[in-house]
Amino acid sequence: MRLFIVANFDKPQIRPALDAWLPLIRAKVDLVGVTDEWEGNFAGLEADVVLVLGGDGTLLGCARQLRGRSIPVMGVNFGRLGFLASFTPETFLQALDELVAGRLPVRHRMMAEASVVGAEVACAITDPAEVVRHRRFVATALNDAVITAGPPFHMVELALGVDGEDGAKYFGDGVIVCTPSGSTAYNMSAGGPIMSPEVEAFCITPICPHSLSFRPVVVSAKSTIVITANHVNEGTTLFCDGQVSTKLQKGDKILIRRSEHDMLLIENPHMRDWRELAEKLNWAVTPKYNETR
User: Fold this and answer.
1) pLDDT tens for residues 114-152?
2) Together in a domain, 138 and 203
3) Smallest Cα–Cα separation from 174: which of 156, 190, 192?
4) Cα(257)–Cα(262) distance, rounded to whole angstroms?
5) Is 48 assigned a catalytic role?
6) For the sheet containing 73-77, what is the strand order?
7) Is 289 within a domain?
8) Which domain holds residue 53?
9) Which has the least CB within 10 A, 33, 46, 168, 219?
10) In terms of domains, do 120 and 253 share one?
11) Which DSSP category does 36 fall into?
């Protein structure tokens, strides 16, 4: 097995942990490289598995930079919640043995592709080939594509449409379009629903809408979501996974659809989706009655 390691050395506990693990890793696998460039281009990478040491942010960067390569990614969480990086430093060596033995499950995680077409371009936005030809920005995201109002932080006006339908106007601080993987990130904080990773869908969640009737909406992953920037601020920006961004201008059309390539995530078989939510978010905890303080 050829293993490539991406380590986020900005987290001080990672370097000593990796130094301790390297002799054991080399004894079990063919280590083809170690890098701290977790936002580098891995298009030419020759490896069977990418091991990510960091948190979900580091893993998100790696997933995007693999650019559709079908290389499974295994994350060891040195961050906080770690929904995607589901292994812990304490269980890493046992997990490595299971990885080498081929006993770890690999799950396909859908990714989103976000494109921006300028207002001056006249093209059929429902035609993927036309969009590819005329777009000025494109990025993939494992978690979400987010439009934020930005400075001077006045409300923006957006029009949202799905699969060619006319857009519904919306005033507020922005909008989140997330995958199931990203439903427990910004989407959840903004009041959007938590989606199982097995669901093939997008969730469209408004950020502080100026209307009580505008609620989060879940649409099929086969849909193309079109957001038109009718009125924006100087700092209005599209962010993909919070890491890649572009400024938006009046009239820009943002098209979000499912990427042609999924990300392959190696998951911890000892963790379960709903139990993990309960443990990490202190979710659905039974009220504590008559306890002494």
Assistant:
1) 999 998 876 666 677 888 888 999 999 999 999 999 999
2) yes
3) 156
4) 12
5) no
6) 30-35, 2-7, 49-54, 73-77, 263-266, 106-109
7) no
8) 2-109+262-281
9) 46
10) yes
11) S
